[in-house]
């Protein structure tokens, strides 16, 4: 899409050699399970320290917003922590909030002049967002952002942990010629 390649892979986001990985965090920014736990475990204590400093400044991170820390021991230079919505049936603004997660993460990535970024399937674990709906929102939000911004991003990678998400994303993103 333009100069930016959209990719889908199955795997562990903590292993990726990209400039920034996105974390599906919670508003406390103090860590948790799922991909959040994996990123803090693999990235080491520096990430939590920076999250605590951000908390001290702004009191956590509201749903749909994003904050950035360094990547600690991860191959990635930055972690962009965003807070996905909890699924309450779809009438509580979940779609707009999930769109904001992708949009605000990309905005921060551009501010940091990131060339490659990897997203997990935000909100589709503990937060219960239906995977098919979340995949649609994710792909649409990223495509819209890329259409509307003069971005330096060369690669956006959707990292799927489970086979169901992989299949959903592969259906939405036909393989691009390289
Ligand atoms: N790499 C890539 N994806 C992963 C990994 C990994 N290492 N581990 C899990 N996933 P979740 P949420 C996938 O629950 O629904 C945390 O406790 C997972 O299969 O991590 O946004 C936070 O602190 C799923 O598809 O995040 C919050 O409290 C996706 O990542 C809460 O969970 C998201 O699942 C956020 O819930």
Task: Round the mean pLDDT to the nearest integer and report it.
Answer: 96
Helix content: 25-40%
Spans of at least 5 consecutive residues whose pLDDT stays below 50 are none
User: Span from first to last CA?
Assistant: 11 Å
CATH topology title: Leucine Aminopeptidase, subunit E, domain 1
- Strand runs, count: 6
Individual helix count: 5
Q: Please, how many domains?
A: 1
Q: Which CATH class?
A: Alpha Beta
Question: What Rg do the Cα atoms give?
Answer: 15 Å
How would you explain this protein's 3D organization?
The chain is of the alpha/beta class. The chain has a single domain (5-172), classed as Leucine Aminopeptidase, subunit E, domain 1, CATH 3.40.220. It is built from five helices and six strands, in the order E-E-H-H-E-E-H-E-H-E-H. The chain has helices at residues 34-43, 45-58, 94-111, 131-148, 163-172, and strands spanning 5-10, 20-25, 66-70, 78-83, 116-119, 155-160. It has a six-stranded mixed beta sheet with strand order 1-6-5-2-4-3, with helices on both faces. Helix 3 (94-111) packs across helix 4 (131-148) and helix 4 (131-148) packs across helix 5. The protein is globular, with a radius of gyration of 15 Å. The termini are close together. The model has no long low-confidence stretch (mean pLDDT 96). Ligand AR6 binds at residues 12-14, 24-26, 32-36, 38, 84, 120-127, 159, 161-162, 165.
């Amino acid at each position: 899409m333009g100069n930016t390649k959209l990719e889908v892979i199955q795997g562990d986001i903590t292993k990726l050699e990209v400039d920034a990985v996105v974390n599906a965090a919670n508003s406390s920014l103090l860590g948790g399970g799922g991909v959040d736990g994996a990123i803090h475990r693999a990235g080491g204590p520096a990430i939590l320290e920076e999250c605590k400093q951000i908390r001290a400044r702004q009191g956590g991170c509201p749903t749909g917003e994003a904050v950035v820390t360094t990547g600690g021991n991860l191959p990635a230079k930055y972690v962009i922590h965003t807070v996905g919505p909890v699924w309450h049936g779809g009438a509580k603004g979940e779609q707009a909030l999930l769109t904001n997660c992708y949009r605000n993460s990309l905005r921060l990535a551009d501010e940091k002049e990131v060339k490659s970024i990897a997203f997990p399937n935000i909100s589709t674990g503990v937060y219960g967002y239906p995977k098919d709906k979340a995949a649609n929102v994710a792909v649409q939000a990223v495509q819209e952002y890329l259409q509307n911004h003069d971005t330096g991003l060369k690669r956006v990678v959707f990292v799927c942990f489970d086979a169901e998400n992989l299949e959903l994303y592969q259906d939405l993103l036909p393989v691009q010629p390289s």
